[in-house]
Structure formats: structure tokens, C-alpha cells
Specification:
The chain is mostly helical. It contains ten helices and four strands. Keywords: Lipid biosynthesis, Lipid metabolism, Membrane, Phospholipid biosynthesis, Phospholipid metabolism, Transferase, Transmembrane, Transmembrane helix.
Length: 247
């Protein structure tokens, strides 16, 4: 059998393989010439398909995460330069994150475009904006003792656990109405109240050594009693018996 007869089945196999990948006849030539513009466009289309799959509500969720991340950076900048304006800016971003968090749900229901991706994205954004960011702002305000670290870390872990539980149980609680009638434990955005309290303290200069309720020396570490509000907030988030109607 000639070499040409061997080449034919190989070519047929190659064409079939390209067809299975969804490539056009024009892009078959690109198998030999990867620099072909059409081939690059096809590859980019596959690589960036996630961004095209985002719904309008998902962009509001990302704006929520953007604000929370900005608040964390503002707290870090305050610790570096001790400019109170940076701290107040970080605190102002949390209410803005709350607005975006509220809007993404309304937009999803309006467009009837809710998805599993959107729900997971919302939870991750909430962890940043209403879990990590308030803890970082509390630390920047003066809760920097060893016991404070433990309480702030407990608060963040409670927020993570609360959102994980919600994602798992939401479908069971929703029932036939396809709507969650109540929250088990306080929603994590309620940490906005802590941020507002810290913003009041920061605006009148009661941060650092003059933080409300002072500080105690407990063993090797310092403890600021004000951090107990974070402990209470975290505990309410993970409460199993506390049920709050969802509006």
C-alpha cells in the first residue's frame, strides 16, 4: 500500500477531530498556522467564555466585592500612613457594598436570571465585604491585641459558615414557592452596623488608644472589650434557632 493511502485516513481523522471541536473549515488550516487570526479568536472565545456568561446581576455582585476589597486596602493604608481619611473612606465603601448587594438580588429577579454561579458569586462577595472588611477595619481602629485577633477571626469564620449553610439549605427551605421565607441566623450584611459604629468612633477620634471601653491586659495579650460586639454578631449569624423573616 502506498504512502498516499496511509496519509488519507490520517487526514480524515484530523478533519473529524477538528469538526468535533466546533472549528470551521477555515480554521482547519490554522492547525498548521497557529498565528491565524481566526484561530486565535476561537481560542479566546473559549478562554473568556465565563465573562460572557455573566448576567447583569453578577456585575452588581462584583461591584460589591470591589467595594469590600477597597475597604480592606483602605484599612491597610491607614495602618501605614495613619491618615484618618483613608479609614473613613474604607468605612464608606461598606454601605456602598450593601447597596450593590441589595441590587443584585432585585436585578436577578427582575430579569429572571438567577443561577448557581450567581449565588456562589454573591456569597464570596459577601464574605469579603461583610466579613473580612469589617474585621480589617476593626483591627485598624485599634483592636490589635492577641485576644482581639482571635475574636475577629472567629467573626470571619462565622460569616463564612453562615453563608455556606445558606447555600446548602436555601433550596430545601424555599419549597414550591422558590423563595426563601426566612433567614437562619442574622444575615452577614448586618455587620454593616458594626462598621457604622466604628465610623462614629473614628469620626470623633476615639480609635487606637482612645477606643471606646478601653483595653485590658489578660495574660500575655491585650483585649479591647469593644471587640465583643464582633463576637456577638458572629454568634448570631450561626444561630440555628434565630429565624428572621426575609422581606
Amino acid at each position: 500500500m502506498s504512502s498516499r493511502s496511509h496519509a488519507r485516513p490520517e487526514a480524515v481523522t484530523r478533519i473529524a477531530s477538528l469538526a468535533e471541536c466546533g472549528e470551521t473549515v477555515a480554521c482547519m488550516a490554522c492547525a498548521r498556522y497557529p498565528s491565524c487570526l481566526a484561530h486565535l479568536r476561537l481560542r479566546m472565545k473559549r478562554h473568556f467564555s465565563m465573562l460572557r456568561d455573566f448576567q447583569l446581576a453578577d456585575w452588581f455582585t462584583l461591584a460589591n466585592a470591589f467595594c469590600g476589597t477597597g475597604a480592606v486596602f483602605a484599612a491597610m493604608r491607614f495602618l501605614q500612613e495613619e491618615h484618618r481619611g483613608d479609614l473613613l473612606l474604607g468605612m464608606a465603601l461598606i454601605p456602598l457594598a450593601f447597596v450593590f448587594d441589595a441590587l443584585d438580588g432585585h436585578v436577578a429577579r427582575w430579569r429572571k436570571a438567577s443561577s448557581t454561579l450567581g449565588r456562589e458569586l454573591d456569597s464570596l462577595a459577601d464574605v469579603i465585604s461583610f466579613g473580612v472588611a469589617p474585621a480589617a477595619l476593626g483591627y485598624a481602629c485599634g483592636m490589635r491585641g492577641g485576644w482581639d485577633w482571635l475574636v475577629l477571626s472567629y467573626f470571619v469564620c462565622c460569616g463564612v459558615s453562615r453563608l455556606a449553610r445558606y447555600n446548602v439549605t436555601a433550596e430545601e427551605i424555599a419549597g414550591e414557592a422558590d423563595k426563601v421565607p426566612y433567614f437562619e441566623g442574622t444575615p452577614i450584611p448586618t455587620s454593616l452596623l458594626l462598621v457604622i459604629l466604628l465610623a462614629v468612633a473614628a469620626s470623633i477620634g476615639h480609635i487606637g488608644e482612645t477606643l471606646w471601653w478601653g483595653q485590658w491586659q489578660l495574660g500575655p495579650w491585650q483585649f479591647h472589650p469593644l471587640v465583643l460586639l464582633f463576637a456577638v454578631s458572629g454568634s448570631l449569624m450561626i444561630s440555628k434557632t434565630l429565624r428572621i423573616p426575609k422581606l
